[in-house]
Amino acid sequence: MTGGTSIAGRAGWIADGDLQKLLAALSAGGEKARIAGGAVRNALLGEDVTDIDIATTTTPEETTRRAEKAGFRAVPTGAEHGTITVIAGHRPYEVTTLRADVETDGRRARVVFGRDWKADAERRDFTINGLYAEADGTVVDMVGGLTDLAERRLRFIGDAETRIREDYLRILRFFRFYAWYGDGRPDPDGLKASARLKDGLDRLSAERVWAELKKLLGAPDPSRALRWMRQAGVLGRVLPESERWGIDAVPGLIRAETDLGWPVDPMLRLEAIVPPDAERMAELAERLKMSKAETSRLREWTLARSVAPETSEGAFARLLYRADEQALADRLKLDLAAARARATNHPEELVKAGGYARLLRFLGSWAKPEFPLRGADVVKLGAKPGPQLGALLAQLELEWIESGFALDRDELLSRAGERLGRHE
Fold first, then answer.
1. Is 391 found in the same domain as 256?
2. How far apart, in Å, do the first and last CA atoms of the chain sit?
3. Block means of pLDDT (10 residues each) for the chain, length 424 residues?
4. Are 91 and 161 in a shared domain?
5. Which terminus in the chain has less CB density within 10 A, N or C?
6. Closest by alpha carbon to 293, among 267, 270, 254, 316?
7. Residues 354 and 248 in one domain
Protein backbone atom coordinates (compact mmCIF):
# COMPACT_ATOMS: atom_id res chain seq x y z
CA MET A 1 0.00 0.00 0.00
CA THR A 2 1.09 3.61 -0.43
CA GLY A 3 0.02 6.44 1.80
CA GLY A 4 1.01 9.43 -0.26
CA THR A 5 4.35 9.64 1.54
CA SER A 6 7.34 10.44 -0.66
CA ILE A 7 11.08 10.77 -0.19
CA ALA A 8 11.45 12.92 -3.31
CA GLY A 9 11.79 16.15 -1.36
CA ARG A 10 14.10 14.63 1.25
CA ALA A 11 16.50 12.63 -0.91
CA GLY A 12 18.25 14.59 -3.62
CA TRP A 13 20.03 11.42 -4.71
CA ILE A 14 16.81 9.93 -6.09
CA ALA A 15 16.98 12.34 -9.04
CA ASP A 16 20.43 11.05 -10.04
CA GLY A 17 20.37 10.38 -13.78
CA ASP A 18 22.18 7.04 -13.59
CA LEU A 19 19.90 5.77 -10.81
CA GLN A 20 16.81 6.76 -12.77
CA LYS A 21 18.20 5.14 -15.91
CA LEU A 22 18.87 1.92 -14.00
CA LEU A 23 15.40 1.85 -12.44
CA ALA A 24 13.82 2.48 -15.84
CA ALA A 25 15.83 -0.31 -17.47
CA LEU A 26 14.83 -2.78 -14.76
CA SER A 27 11.16 -1.73 -14.88
CA ALA A 28 10.65 -2.02 -18.64
CA GLY A 29 8.49 -4.67 -20.29
CA GLY A 30 6.21 -5.49 -17.37
CA GLU A 31 8.98 -5.80 -14.77
CA LYS A 32 9.32 -3.61 -11.69
CA ALA A 33 12.18 -2.14 -9.66
CA ARG A 34 12.05 -0.11 -6.46
CA ILE A 35 14.51 1.36 -3.99
CA ALA A 36 14.41 -0.81 -0.87
CA GLY A 37 15.19 -0.85 2.83
CA GLY A 38 17.66 1.38 4.58
CA ALA A 39 17.89 4.11 1.94
CA VAL A 40 14.14 4.69 2.19
CA ARG A 41 14.19 4.54 6.00
CA ASN A 42 17.06 6.99 6.36
CA ALA A 43 15.64 9.39 3.78
CA LEU A 44 12.37 9.52 5.75
CA LEU A 45 14.34 10.22 8.93
CA GLY A 46 16.44 12.90 7.28
CA GLU A 47 19.62 10.93 7.88
CA ASP A 48 22.55 10.26 5.56
CA VAL A 49 22.18 7.54 2.96
CA THR A 50 25.39 5.75 2.07
CA ASP A 51 24.10 2.60 0.33
CA ILE A 52 21.19 2.40 -2.07
CA ASP A 53 19.68 -1.04 -2.56
CA ILE A 54 17.20 -1.91 -5.28
CA ALA A 55 14.63 -4.71 -5.30
CA THR A 56 13.42 -5.99 -8.67
CA THR A 57 11.26 -8.63 -10.28
CA THR A 58 13.95 -9.38 -12.87
CA THR A 59 16.03 -12.50 -12.35
CA PRO A 60 19.79 -12.06 -11.72
CA GLU A 61 20.56 -13.01 -15.31
CA GLU A 62 18.01 -10.52 -16.64
CA THR A 63 19.24 -7.84 -14.23
CA THR A 64 22.75 -8.31 -15.62
CA ARG A 65 21.56 -8.21 -19.22
CA ARG A 66 19.52 -5.04 -18.73
CA ALA A 67 22.18 -3.24 -16.71
CA GLU A 68 24.86 -3.93 -19.31
CA LYS A 69 22.56 -2.92 -22.16
CA ALA A 70 22.03 0.39 -20.33
CA GLY A 71 25.79 0.90 -20.31
CA PHE A 72 26.48 -0.11 -16.72
CA ARG A 73 28.79 -2.75 -15.29
CA ALA A 74 27.21 -5.72 -13.49
CA VAL A 75 29.11 -7.80 -10.93
CA PRO A 76 27.60 -11.11 -9.66
CA THR A 77 28.47 -10.46 -6.00
CA GLY A 78 25.67 -12.69 -4.69
CA ALA A 79 23.94 -14.09 -7.73
CA GLU A 80 22.97 -17.33 -5.96
CA HIS A 81 20.94 -15.22 -3.53
CA GLY A 82 19.65 -12.95 -6.25
CA THR A 83 22.04 -10.03 -5.81
CA ILE A 84 23.91 -8.28 -8.61
CA THR A 85 26.02 -5.20 -7.90
CA VAL A 86 25.52 -2.66 -10.66
CA ILE A 87 28.13 0.08 -11.04
CA ALA A 88 26.33 3.12 -12.42
CA GLY A 89 28.09 6.45 -12.55
CA HIS A 90 30.91 5.19 -10.31
CA ARG A 91 28.36 4.29 -7.62
CA PRO A 92 27.49 0.70 -6.69
CA TYR A 93 23.87 -0.37 -6.34
CA GLU A 94 22.98 -3.78 -4.91
CA VAL A 95 20.12 -5.04 -7.07
CA THR A 96 18.31 -8.05 -5.62
CA THR A 97 15.55 -10.14 -7.14
CA LEU A 98 12.37 -10.47 -5.04
CA ARG A 99 12.73 -13.48 -2.79
CA ALA A 100 10.93 -15.73 -0.37
CA ASP A 101 12.84 -17.80 2.19
CA VAL A 102 12.13 -21.48 1.72
CA GLU A 103 14.43 -23.22 4.16
CA THR A 104 16.69 -21.90 6.89
CA ASP A 105 18.98 -23.26 9.61
CA GLY A 106 19.18 -20.06 11.62
CA ARG A 107 22.27 -18.84 9.80
CA ARG A 108 21.52 -18.95 6.08
CA ALA A 109 18.44 -19.43 3.94
CA ARG A 110 17.77 -21.25 0.69
CA VAL A 111 15.69 -18.91 -1.42
CA VAL A 112 13.52 -18.91 -4.50
CA PHE A 113 12.99 -15.87 -6.64
CA GLY A 114 9.53 -14.42 -7.07
CA ARG A 115 7.38 -11.50 -8.17
CA ASP A 116 5.33 -10.95 -5.02
CA TRP A 117 6.27 -7.65 -3.39
CA LYS A 118 4.34 -8.37 -0.19
CA ALA A 119 6.07 -11.74 0.21
CA ASP A 120 9.42 -10.05 -0.32
CA ALA A 121 8.62 -7.41 2.30
CA GLU A 122 7.41 -10.00 4.81
CA ARG A 123 10.66 -11.98 4.62
CA ARG A 124 12.63 -8.97 5.84
CA ASP A 125 13.46 -8.46 9.52
CA PHE A 126 11.87 -5.24 10.82
CA THR A 127 8.97 -3.14 9.59
CA ILE A 128 11.15 -0.03 9.20
CA ASN A 129 13.39 -2.03 6.86
CA GLY A 130 10.48 -3.34 4.80
CA LEU A 131 9.78 -0.07 2.97
CA TYR A 132 10.18 0.54 -0.77
CA ALA A 133 10.19 3.68 -2.90
CA GLU A 134 9.17 4.10 -6.51
CA ALA A 135 11.41 5.93 -8.95
CA ASP A 136 9.43 9.12 -8.31
CA GLY A 137 9.97 8.79 -4.53
CA THR A 138 6.52 7.47 -3.57
CA VAL A 139 6.88 5.18 -0.56
CA VAL A 140 5.34 1.72 -0.68
CA ASP A 141 4.57 0.22 2.75
CA MET A 142 3.02 -3.23 3.09
CA VAL A 143 4.15 -4.03 6.65
CA GLY A 144 3.32 -0.96 8.75
CA GLY A 145 6.81 0.45 8.63
CA LEU A 146 5.76 4.09 8.17
CA THR A 147 3.80 4.17 11.43
CA ASP A 148 6.56 2.41 13.33
CA LEU A 149 9.16 4.77 11.90
CA ALA A 150 7.12 7.81 12.88
CA GLU A 151 6.81 6.47 16.43
CA ARG A 152 10.45 5.30 16.59
CA ARG A 153 9.27 1.77 17.29
CA LEU A 154 11.38 -1.21 16.23
CA ARG A 155 9.18 -4.21 15.50
CA PHE A 156 9.75 -7.54 13.79
CA ILE A 157 7.67 -8.23 10.71
CA GLY A 158 5.22 -10.97 11.69
CA ASP A 159 6.10 -13.33 14.54
CA ALA A 160 9.33 -12.34 16.29
CA GLU A 161 10.39 -15.89 17.12
CA THR A 162 9.84 -17.01 13.54
CA ARG A 163 11.95 -14.15 12.22
CA ILE A 164 14.75 -14.91 14.68
CA ARG A 165 14.78 -18.64 13.99
CA GLU A 166 15.38 -17.79 10.31
CA ASP A 167 18.62 -16.03 11.30
CA TYR A 168 19.78 -15.72 14.91
CA LEU A 169 21.83 -12.67 14.01
CA ARG A 170 18.50 -10.84 14.06
CA ILE A 171 18.71 -10.85 17.86
CA LEU A 172 21.74 -8.58 17.69
CA ARG A 173 20.20 -6.61 14.84
CA PHE A 174 17.13 -6.04 17.01
CA PHE A 175 19.24 -4.28 19.64
CA ARG A 176 21.44 -2.57 17.06
CA PHE A 177 18.50 -1.02 15.20
CA TYR A 178 16.85 -0.16 18.51
CA ALA A 179 20.03 1.72 19.48
CA TRP A 180 19.98 3.65 16.22
CA TYR A 181 16.26 4.17 15.61
CA GLY A 182 14.26 3.07 18.65
CA ASP A 183 12.63 5.16 21.35
CA GLY A 184 11.06 4.24 24.68
CA ARG A 185 11.01 0.59 25.69
CA PRO A 186 11.89 -2.08 23.12
CA ASP A 187 9.03 -3.99 21.54
CA PRO A 188 7.96 -6.57 24.18
CA ASP A 189 7.54 -9.43 21.70
CA GLY A 190 10.97 -8.81 20.18
CA LEU A 191 12.58 -8.53 23.60
CA LYS A 192 11.00 -11.74 24.91
CA ALA A 193 11.85 -13.67 21.76
CA SER A 194 15.46 -12.47 21.91
CA ALA A 195 15.78 -13.58 25.52
CA ARG A 196 14.21 -16.99 24.82
CA LEU A 197 16.31 -17.72 21.75
CA LYS A 198 19.65 -16.23 22.80
CA ASP A 199 21.31 -19.66 22.80
CA GLY A 200 21.02 -19.56 19.03
CA LEU A 201 23.68 -16.85 18.96
CA ASP A 202 26.23 -19.62 19.55
CA ARG A 203 25.58 -20.86 16.01
CA LEU A 204 26.75 -17.64 14.41
CA SER A 205 30.22 -16.96 13.07
CA ALA A 206 32.41 -14.74 15.21
CA GLU A 207 32.85 -12.31 12.33
CA ARG A 208 29.10 -11.69 12.05
CA VAL A 209 28.72 -11.22 15.80
CA TRP A 210 31.59 -8.73 16.06
CA ALA A 211 30.40 -6.80 13.00
CA GLU A 212 26.98 -6.34 14.63
CA LEU A 213 28.45 -5.40 18.00
CA LYS A 214 30.62 -2.75 16.37
CA LYS A 215 27.62 -1.27 14.56
CA LEU A 216 25.65 -1.23 17.81
CA LEU A 217 28.52 0.40 19.70
CA GLY A 218 28.75 2.94 16.89
CA ALA A 219 25.21 4.25 17.49
CA PRO A 220 24.90 7.83 18.75
CA ASP A 221 23.91 6.49 22.18
CA PRO A 222 23.88 2.71 22.69
CA SER A 223 23.30 2.98 26.46
CA ARG A 224 19.65 1.90 26.49
CA ALA A 225 20.23 -0.91 24.02
CA LEU A 226 23.10 -2.28 26.10
CA ARG A 227 20.97 -2.11 29.23
CA TRP A 228 18.16 -4.11 27.60
CA MET A 229 20.66 -6.55 26.10
CA ARG A 230 22.01 -7.19 29.58
CA GLN A 231 18.53 -7.63 31.01
CA ALA A 232 17.63 -10.13 28.27
CA GLY A 233 20.84 -12.09 28.86
CA VAL A 234 22.03 -11.36 25.33
CA LEU A 235 25.01 -9.17 26.23
CA GLY A 236 26.44 -11.79 28.55
CA ARG A 237 26.02 -14.38 25.81
CA VAL A 238 28.12 -12.56 23.23
CA LEU A 239 30.32 -10.52 25.58
CA PRO A 240 30.67 -12.43 28.87
CA GLU A 241 33.64 -10.24 29.82
CA SER A 242 31.17 -7.41 30.48
CA GLU A 243 29.11 -9.26 33.07
CA ARG A 244 31.07 -8.47 36.23
CA TRP A 245 32.63 -5.29 34.89
CA GLY A 246 29.30 -3.75 33.89
CA ILE A 247 28.03 -1.15 31.46
CA ASP A 248 27.49 1.70 33.91
CA ALA A 249 30.41 3.70 32.48
CA VAL A 250 28.76 4.07 29.07
CA PRO A 251 26.30 6.92 29.82
CA GLY A 252 29.11 9.05 31.26
CA LEU A 253 31.29 8.30 28.25
CA ILE A 254 28.48 9.30 25.88
CA ARG A 255 28.01 12.59 27.74
CA ALA A 256 31.75 13.29 27.56
CA GLU A 257 31.77 12.54 23.82
CA THR A 258 28.87 14.95 23.29
CA ASP A 259 30.17 17.73 25.53
CA LEU A 260 33.80 17.53 24.45
CA GLY A 261 33.30 16.79 20.76
CA TRP A 262 34.94 13.38 20.72
CA PRO A 263 34.21 11.27 17.64
CA VAL A 264 32.14 8.12 18.08
CA ASP A 265 34.60 5.30 18.76
CA PRO A 266 33.18 1.76 19.10
CA MET A 267 36.49 0.40 20.40
CA LEU A 268 36.66 2.99 23.20
CA ARG A 269 33.07 2.15 24.14
CA LEU A 270 33.98 -1.53 24.19
CA GLU A 271 36.88 -0.75 26.53
CA ALA A 272 34.39 1.01 28.82
CA ILE A 273 32.46 -2.22 29.42
CA VAL A 274 35.23 -4.82 29.67
CA PRO A 275 38.04 -5.25 32.23
CA PRO A 276 41.58 -4.07 31.38
CA ASP A 277 42.87 -7.61 31.73
CA ALA A 278 45.45 -8.56 29.08
CA GLU A 279 44.73 -12.29 29.15
CA ARG A 280 40.95 -11.91 28.96
CA MET A 281 41.16 -9.30 26.21
CA ALA A 282 43.43 -11.57 24.19
CA GLU A 283 40.81 -14.31 24.52
CA LEU A 284 38.03 -11.89 23.58
CA ALA A 285 39.88 -10.70 20.48
CA GLU A 286 40.55 -14.27 19.40
CA ARG A 287 36.97 -15.37 20.03
CA LEU A 288 35.47 -12.50 18.02
CA LYS A 289 38.12 -12.77 15.28
CA MET A 290 39.06 -9.13 15.63
CA SER A 291 41.46 -7.54 13.17
CA LYS A 292 45.15 -7.22 14.01
CA ALA A 293 44.71 -3.49 14.62
CA GLU A 294 41.76 -4.03 16.96
CA THR A 295 43.56 -6.81 18.83
CA SER A 296 46.64 -4.65 19.22
CA ARG A 297 44.63 -1.69 20.48
CA LEU A 298 42.92 -3.79 23.12
CA ARG A 299 46.21 -5.32 24.22
CA GLU A 300 48.03 -1.98 24.46
CA TRP A 301 45.11 -0.49 26.39
CA THR A 302 45.34 -3.24 29.01
CA LEU A 303 49.09 -2.67 29.34
CA ALA A 304 48.97 1.12 29.54
CA ARG A 305 49.44 2.71 32.94
CA SER A 306 46.75 4.92 34.41
CA VAL A 307 48.09 8.45 34.71
CA ALA A 308 47.41 10.55 37.81
CA PRO A 309 45.51 13.72 36.86
CA GLU A 310 48.04 15.93 38.63
CA THR A 311 50.94 14.56 36.54
CA SER A 312 53.12 17.36 35.16
CA GLU A 313 53.39 17.78 31.42
CA GLY A 314 57.13 17.08 31.61
CA ALA A 315 56.60 13.78 33.40
CA PHE A 316 53.78 12.91 31.04
CA ALA A 317 55.99 13.62 28.01
CA ARG A 318 58.64 11.26 29.37
CA LEU A 319 55.95 8.60 29.80
CA LEU A 320 54.58 9.25 26.32
CA TYR A 321 57.97 8.72 24.69
CA ARG A 322 57.97 5.05 25.69
CA ALA A 323 54.23 4.44 25.61
CA ASP A 324 51.53 3.67 23.05
CA GLU A 325 49.82 7.03 22.43
CA GLN A 326 46.44 5.52 21.50
CA ALA A 327 46.40 3.40 24.65
CA LEU A 328 47.18 6.39 26.86
CA ALA A 329 44.52 8.45 25.09
CA ASP A 330 41.98 5.67 25.71
CA ARG A 331 42.90 5.49 29.39
CA LEU A 332 42.69 9.27 29.80
CA LYS A 333 39.35 9.54 28.01
CA LEU A 334 37.78 6.79 30.12
CA ASP A 335 39.18 8.32 33.33
CA LEU A 336 38.00 11.78 32.32
CA ALA A 337 34.51 10.55 31.49
CA ALA A 338 34.32 8.68 34.81
CA ALA A 339 35.50 11.71 36.80
CA ARG A 340 32.93 13.94 35.10
CA ALA A 341 30.18 11.43 35.89
CA ARG A 342 31.23 11.22 39.56
CA ALA A 343 31.34 15.02 39.83
CA THR A 344 27.54 15.09 39.81
CA ASN A 345 27.59 13.92 43.44
CA HIS A 346 31.21 14.66 44.29
CA PRO A 347 32.22 18.15 43.06
CA GLU A 348 35.86 17.52 44.01
CA GLU A 349 36.04 15.12 41.05
CA LEU A 350 35.96 18.17 38.77
CA VAL A 351 39.58 18.84 39.72
CA LYS A 352 40.55 15.36 38.53
CA ALA A 353 38.52 15.82 35.37
CA GLY A 354 40.39 19.06 34.69
CA GLY A 355 43.72 17.27 35.12
CA TYR A 356 42.78 14.50 32.71
CA ALA A 357 41.51 17.06 30.19
CA ARG A 358 44.79 18.98 30.44
CA LEU A 359 46.83 15.83 29.76
CA LEU A 360 44.60 14.90 26.84
CA ARG A 361 45.13 18.32 25.28
CA PHE A 362 48.87 17.94 25.74
CA LEU A 363 48.81 14.49 24.14
CA GLY A 364 46.85 15.87 21.18
CA SER A 365 49.52 18.46 20.42
CA TRP A 366 52.57 16.37 21.35
CA ALA A 367 55.02 15.24 18.67
CA LYS A 368 57.45 12.51 19.61
CA PRO A 369 61.02 13.92 19.56
CA GLU A 370 63.79 12.07 17.76
CA PHE A 371 66.86 10.93 19.69
CA PRO A 372 69.76 13.01 18.25
CA LEU A 373 72.40 10.24 18.23
CA ARG A 374 72.96 7.22 16.02
CA GLY A 375 75.32 4.32 16.49
CA ALA A 376 77.53 5.62 13.70
CA ASP A 377 78.03 8.87 15.65
CA VAL A 378 79.47 7.01 18.60
CA VAL A 379 81.53 4.65 16.42
CA LYS A 380 83.30 7.73 15.06
CA LEU A 381 84.37 8.50 18.64
CA GLY A 382 86.09 5.12 18.85
CA ALA A 383 83.31 2.81 20.05
CA LYS A 384 83.25 -0.71 18.66
CA PRO A 385 79.98 -2.11 17.30
CA GLY A 386 78.42 -4.63 19.66
CA PRO A 387 76.53 -4.97 22.93
CA GLN A 388 78.56 -2.27 24.71
CA LEU A 389 77.70 0.26 22.01
CA GLY A 390 74.02 -0.60 22.36
CA ALA A 391 74.18 -0.26 26.14
CA LEU A 392 75.91 3.13 25.88
CA LEU A 393 73.32 4.44 23.42
CA ALA A 394 70.49 3.17 25.64
CA GLN A 395 71.97 4.94 28.68
CA LEU A 396 72.45 8.19 26.78
CA GLU A 397 68.88 8.03 25.47
CA LEU A 398 67.60 7.50 29.02
CA GLU A 399 69.52 10.56 30.21
CA TRP A 400 68.14 12.55 27.25
CA ILE A 401 64.59 11.52 28.19
CA GLU A 402 65.13 12.36 31.86
CA SER A 403 66.40 15.81 30.85
CA GLY A 404 63.03 16.45 29.28
CA PHE A 405 64.63 15.94 25.84
CA ALA A 406 66.75 19.06 26.49
CA LEU A 407 70.20 17.54 25.95
CA ASP A 408 71.37 18.39 22.45
CA ARG A 409 73.55 16.38 20.09
CA ASP A 410 76.80 18.08 21.17
CA GLU A 411 76.19 17.43 24.85
CA LEU A 412 75.31 13.80 24.17
CA LEU A 413 78.44 13.33 22.06
CA SER A 414 80.51 14.89 24.84
CA ARG A 415 79.05 12.46 27.37
CA ALA A 416 79.66 9.55 25.03
CA GLY A 417 83.30 10.62 24.55
CA GLU A 418 83.86 10.91 28.30
CA ARG A 419 82.58 7.39 28.90
CA LEU A 420 84.56 5.89 26.08
CA GLY A 421 87.68 7.60 27.45
CA ARG A 422 87.13 6.10 30.86
CA HIS A 423 86.96 2.62 29.32
CA GLU A 424 90.19 2.93 27.37
1. no
2. 94
3. 80 95 97 97 94 96 97 93 93 93 58 90 95 97 97 97 96 98 96 98 97 98 97 97 90 97 98 96 97 98 95 96 96 98 94 98 96 92 89 94 94 91 59
4. no
5. C
6. 267
7. no
Q: Which pLDDT belongs to residue 108? A: 60
Based on the fold, state whether residues 112 and 3 are members of the same structural domain. Answer: yes
Neighbour-count burial for 219-253, b at 16+ CB within 10 Å, e otherwise: bebbbbbbebbbebebbebbbebbeebebebbbbb
Tell me the CA distances in angstroms from 283 to 126, 236, 277, 290, one per residue in order.
33, 15, 10, 10
Of the three residues 323, 347, 365, the one that is the final residue of a domain is: 365
Contact 44, 10 (CB under 8 A): yes
- Mind listing the pLDDT tens digit for each residue in 217-262? 999 999 999 999 999 999 999 999 998 888 999 999 999 999 999 9
> In this predicted structure, what is the pLDDT of residue 80?
87
The DSSP secondary-structure symbol of 106 reads B
Do 137 and 10 lie in one domain? The reply is yes
Q: State the total domains in the chain.
A: 4
Q: What share of the chain is helix, strand, coil (3-state, %, to 5)?
A: 55, 15, 30
Q: Write down how long the chain is.
A: 424
DSSP string over 148-169: HHHTT---BSS-HHHHHHHBTH
Helix axis angle, 249-260 to 223-232, nearest 10°: 170
Q: How far apart are CA 394 and CA 283, in angstroms?
A: 34
Query: Within 13 Å and on the Cβ side, how many CA atoms surround 257?
Result: 20
pLDDT digits (tens, 9 = 90+) for 403-412: 999 999 999 9
Report CA torsion sign: 66, 67, 73, 75. negative
Q: Are 63 and 93 in contact (CB under 8 A)?
A: no
Full residue range of the structural domain in which residue 316 is found: 304-365
